[in-house]
Amino acid sequence: MSSSDSRRGRDQARRQARRRKHGSQYRGPAARDNLGSSSLGGCRSRRRNPWQSNSQRRLAAYQLTGLGGLSRQLRLEPLEPRLVLSTINVAIAQSEEDILVGGLAGLAGWADTLDDHNLVAQLLPVVGQSIGDGLDLGDILDQGLAQPVAAYFLGDPTDPTTDELVTAITNLQGATFDNVTLTVTGVSGGKSTVPGDNELVFNLVLQADRSLVANPILGPEGDALGIDFSSTINADATLTLDFSFGVDLSVGLTDEQAFFIRVNSFDTDVDANVAALPTGAMSIGFFDAALTSGNMALDADLGVGLTNLDLDPNGNITLEELQGNSLSSLVTLTPTGTSTGSN
After folding, report:
1. This prediction's pTM
2. What's phi and psi for 208, nearest 5 deg?
């Protein structure tokens, strides 16, 4: 017997063994041709669930012809969709750390001046405090952001990274100080991968709620009559700041030019709702009196807008711009709200 005859004999024996092993599951060439499949070379394919869109999960089944016509299936599952990130994690150099720490401290200092500006400093009826006094924007940005960022760098002096700073900011969620509770959401950041941008940027929504205790007032008319209450009421002041801060990595910039913020929204408000004023002593001018009943409510909202004076295409406002321009040219205030009271 020749070697080719021997090889054909062995192949026939293998095919018979496969038939006995697979029984009815084995399909010969004729059975496979009835599947309505198309063939490319030695590969036959069959689509499943043709009504599903390409964006949905889909299972592609390929029947591969092996030795002796044995049918096998290779199942391929598409990868889950992924968002294309606009930043990547990088190490933060010492010079960049200095700009971030100094820039956030400078931002808090600028906010201190905003506390005393225009409508931010105007006394509100009912609570007898201004939004600037009640919130203390500079204190919130200092204790709530600038100091924790500086503390992160002090705690990791050798190899700080953007991802670690994002984690440190995220961990500010729920932090408390001086009757303030922080809510921090939407934190992200790193080195921008947007074409044309050369920057480190960090994004967050910072909400600070400060609880207040105030002596109620009736506003300008009550003040004109000398009405004064000895009892106190509770109120809440809130800052909601949706913004980004970062470092422009362009060559030749000073620290004040390199540090920037981008503000999506900057909202402040003071709310009080006293259904039953606490009884107590009061005065009307030089007359003593007593408060026996009454109610008061205040909803005072003040939106803060920042003007992009140099029309920066990314909306960047640098620390140099914050510190070098008057508040009246840089800041736009939008007040809304109501106050009510009755006895």
Report:
1. 0.71
2. -125, 125
pLDDT digits (tens, 9 = 90+) for 123-149: 998 888 999 999 999 999 999 999 999
CA–CA distance, 335 with 11 (Å, rounded to integer): 89
Which residues sit opposite 296 in a β-bridge? 274, 341
pLDDT in tens, 94-103: 999 999 999 9
Alpha carbon distances (Å) from 327 to 108, 180, 270, 334: 14, 26, 22, 14
Contact 216, 274 (CB under 8 A): yes
Q: Mean pLDDT across the stretch 80-105?
A: 85
pLDDT value for 83: 39
Angle among Cα 115, 119, 125 to the nearest 5 degrees reads 105
Q: What number is the average pLDDT over the span 251-268?
A: 98
Query: d(Cα 315, Cα 291) in Å, to the nearest integer?
Result: 52
Quick: pLDDT tens for 43-67. 444 333 322 333 433 434 334 344 4
Return the minimum-mean-pLDDT range out of 89-103, 241-255, 284-298.
Answer: 284-298
Task: Extract the tokens encoding 25.
Answer: 């599951």
Query: Do residues 269 and 301 lie in contact, with contact meaning Cβ atoms separated by under 8 Å?
Result: yes
For every residue of the chain, which 3-state class applies, written as one string?
CCHHHHHHHHHHHHHHHHHHHHHHHCCCHHHHHCCCCEEECCEEEECCCCCCCCCCCCCEEEEEECHHHCEEEEEECCCCCCCCCCEECCECCHHHHHHHHHHHHHHHHHHHHHCCCHHHHCCCCECCCCHHHHHCHHHHHHHHHHHHHHHHHHHCCCCCEHHHHHHHHHCCCCCEECCEEEEEEEEEEEEECCCCCCEEEEEEEEEEEEEEEECCECCHHHHHCCEEECCCEEEEEEEEEEEEEEEECCCCCCHHHHEEEEEEEEEEEEEEEECCCCCEEEEECCEEEEECCCEEEEEEEEEEEECCCCCCCCCCEEHHHHHHCCHHHHEEEEEEEEEEEEC
Distance CA 127, CA 217 (A): 6
Contact 224, 207 (CB under 8 A): no
